From TrEMBL, chains A, B:
Function: Catalyzes the cleavage of L-kynurenine (L-Kyn) and L-3-hydroxykynurenine (L-3OHKyn) into anthranilic acid (AA) and 3-hydroxyanthranilic acid (3-OHAA), respectively.
Reactions listed under catalytic activity: 3-hydroxy-L-kynurenine + H2O = 3-hydroxyanthranilate + L-alanine + H(+); L-kynurenine + H2O = anthranilate + L-alanine + H(+)
Keyword Repressor included in the entry's annotation: no
Superkingdom, natural source: Bacteria
Gene Ontology CC entries for this record: cytoplasm
Keyword 4Fe-4S attached: no
Enzyme Commission number(s) of this protein: 3.7.1.3
Alphabetical UniProt keywords: Hydrolase, Pyridine nucleotide biosynthesis, Pyridoxal phosphate
Subunit organization: Homodimer.
Family membership: Belongs to the DegT/DnrJ/EryC1 family.
Protein name: Kynureninase
Binding-site residues for pyridoxal 5'-phosphate, renumbered to this chain: T98, S99, F130, P131, T132, D133, T170, D199, H202, Y224, W254, T280
Length: 421, 421
């Protein structure tokens, strides 16, 4: 039985999360399936950021470090993120960029292994991990004379052995949307004696994550994707309490000092997660991040991440079904796992040719997804249950059908590649 | 001959830079002498940041990486900063925090020395350097098995010898306002075979700096002090072109890759200064930074940094003279050099007791400076010629006189220390 537009409207009508859509300002005529790259604008953000600019900065000036709570922001927002990913209170900080936080936690993990098991000198990761994660790992390996071993997902966990210091994985793959079983992978890595660092860039706010339940060691993630924190919003870092006090990371700036206002010239790391802070944080961007976190916590009274996850799977199921029903014969493949337990909150389609142009033609029609080059090329569509509806999903597929059926994507204007897509 | 309030008003009346004050929104009744800690709000910033929030983020969404020029911001703003500190085009990036940028350039400098002169295994710095700089240096020394040697200013440059890899100095001392002769110190360090890293946190936008003229090797600095970029604004990094392509730094994130959108899994650093970028930057805070840079470049048509420096010295001369004329007998000392060539854009007073409470009493009166604990304790007053006038300076000293003469600072409410001041 095929799904109709009416069916989709009925699904929206009985969706308990539907009111959350009003928490966002979305451009007229846009179906936004790129919240996995940059979350949209929370409706509350313009006023809140304006207040930070005019009142906190403009009127409070330097006094706002105390009076507006700037100093507490990294830990306060960290806790609000932690609550979305199964962290305990006081275990997470919002700060710096994802890449820099990965450097910190990977440094800390390697220091632990260097002390406890110095013969373990390999970082294992997935060949298709997000490139910047691999660059950071490559950099640390170069600094410390270690080896970075890249394998395919199916070679895990066998690749984790007595030489492995750290297994570093992204929970949900950025290209395919495939999701690891965090608890099972962590358990296997621990059994092999390795520590595990998880990148939650495509998980936090998108799927249920239980860092403490999975007994993970370290995690980092992104503030501007599913957390809706605004362009380049500060990222986050989490460390299991069993490691937090034990080791040091080399980005040892003033904000991680045990007594940051004593201005002593020797470094004494703060207790716990605060030692993963470094320099002064961008307060205006941090303020916008809080508005993004508000949108996620607004779902708490509707069932929180569990309810968001349920709707996300319904949306991605629907998208896959509609593409297969309505776009058959146009050479599209599915890169994303069908199995719920292995799927993140995105659907990635493949096509031998034209993937870039098809994405451009869709964007011109107001359906914003993105393109990721590779073998194969990927058409990537992120589904954020906070604001994407079932009717949106119908229309997105209908636009895709028309772009393909009418060969609209062959037009020259859709085939000029820009620097950034 | 003593200076009168009328004299100060006359100085303001004939100050060619006076109109620049209107570029800022300052709170009613405040004399702001803390722009060396956090610059005030540029009048253009609320609207510009609101546009970035509502239009670039809200309407442009992910497309704004191209259409709003987000991707170019670190290099574009870097060039605008570079023009204020004697850098050539394409040599500076605005990115990350001061501490993190110091880590990058110090790493690069140490890598150069490790290759060229491996027996040089000491970083030399000043004991009274800004603590976070020392923490970062301490961290890198620990990572690489090097030694951090701290000396007093008068022991320089004799402390730089055949064991020195890098001399790391802050150009203007945060506690005293004392300024190094950048060209002379750099020349002496080079003669001894060492590289020089300059922290311009209290120099950029405050005093004339000529990085190329001084033949410096590396520099970093702050976006939120004299550059008026807003709370926690991104910092900057500069590298002399002779080093930029040569070496690598370990914070090797996607934005420093030679082909950041090719998503290759091996790291190839970009040519030049771009390799000092790392992860995604906080765009809203970066947007505010540009408004801050606009205020400095607005001085270009009045003589630029040279004219700002001239007024800054006139203001600090006046402040010192007025304090000595009008606050004599109250136990104040002067920590800042009288000699123009050795003075930054701040005046630091000392007092054996009560410095904290005096600063609090002044703040309660609307004269915002800050307190820095130490031996001796410091009352610190920053003078930013863009918005501070001669009459302001008069009134600031008059408030100080009253606070001292009436022992107002002894009130209990001025003697309760907060976490952040």
């Amino acid at each position: 039985m095929t799904t109709t537009l009416q069916d989709c409207r009925a699904l929206d009508a009985r969706d308990p999360l539907r009111p959350l859509r009003d928490l966002f300002t979305l451009p007229e005529g846009v179906i936004y399936l790129d919240g996995n790259s940059l979350g949209p604008l929370p409706r509350a953000a313009p006023e809140r950021v304006a207040k930070a600019v005019r009142e906190e900065w403009g009127q409070g000036l330097i006094r706002s470090w105390n009076t507006a709570g700037w100093y507490e922001l990294p830990r306060r927002l960290g806790d609000r993120i932690g609550a979305l990913v199964g962290a305990g209170a006081g275990e997470t900080v919002a700060t710096d960029s994802t890449s820099i936080n990965l450097f910190k936690v990977l440094s800390a993990a390697l220091s632990i292994t260097a002390a406890d098991a110095p013969s373990r000198r390999v970082i294992v990761s997935e060949r298709s991990n997000f490139p910047t994660d691999l660059y950071i790992a490559e950099g640390l390996c170069r600094e410390r004379g270690l080896e970075l071993r890249l394998v395919d997902a199916e070679e895990l966990p066998a690749a984790v052995d007595e030489r492995t210091a750290v297994l570093m994985l992204t929970h949900v793959n950025y290209r395919t949307g495939a999701m690891h079983d965090m608890a099972a992978v962590t358990r296997a890595a621990h059994a092999a004696g390795a520590l595990v660092v998880w990148d939650l860039a495509h998980s936090a706010g998108a799927v249920e994550v239980d860092l403490r339940g999975a007994d993970a060691d370290f995690a980092i993630g992104c503030g501007y994707k599913y957390l809706n924190g605004g362009p380049g919003a500060p990222a986050f870092a989490w460390v299991h309490p069993r490691h937090a006090d034990r080791f040091w990371q080399p980005l040892s700036g003033w904000w991680s000092h045990a007594a940051p206002f004593a201005f002593t010239h020797d470094y004494q790391p703060a207790a716990g997660i605060a030692r993963y802070l470094c320099g002064t944080q961008p307060i205006l961007s941090m303020t916008a991040l809080e508005c993004g976190l508000d949108t996620l916590h607004a779902a708490d009274r509707f069932g929180g991440m569990q309810a968001l996850r349920r709707k996300s799977l319904a949306l991605t199921d629907l998208f896959i079904a509609l593409v297969e029903e309505r776009c058959a014969g146009h050479g599209l493949g599915l890169a994303t796992p069908r199995e719920h337990a292995r799927r993140g909150s995105q659907v990635c389609l493949t096509r031998d040719t034209g993937a870039y142009a098809i994405v451009q033609a869709l964007i011109a029609r107001g359906v914003i997804g993105d393109f990721r080059a590779g073998r194969p090329d990927i058409l990537r569509f992120g589904f954020t249950p906070l604001y994407v509806g079932f009717e949106d999903t119908w229309h997105a597929v209908e636009h895709l059908r028309q772009v393909l059926a009418e060969e609209e994507w062959q037009r020259p204007e859709f085939n000029q590649q820009h620097a950034v897509t």
